[in-house]
Amino acid sequence: MCHERTLNIFKGCPPFYSLFLSVASAFCLPREIPKDSEAHFTGARDKELMKLNYITSCIIQAAIKVHKVLGPGLLESVYQKCMSIELEKMGLKVEAEMELPVFYGDRKITDLGFRLDLLVESSVIVELKSVEEIKPVHRKQLITYLRLANKELGLLINFNEVLLKKGIVRIVNAFKDEDAD
Question: Domain boundaries in the chain?
Answer without folding.
Answer: 2-172
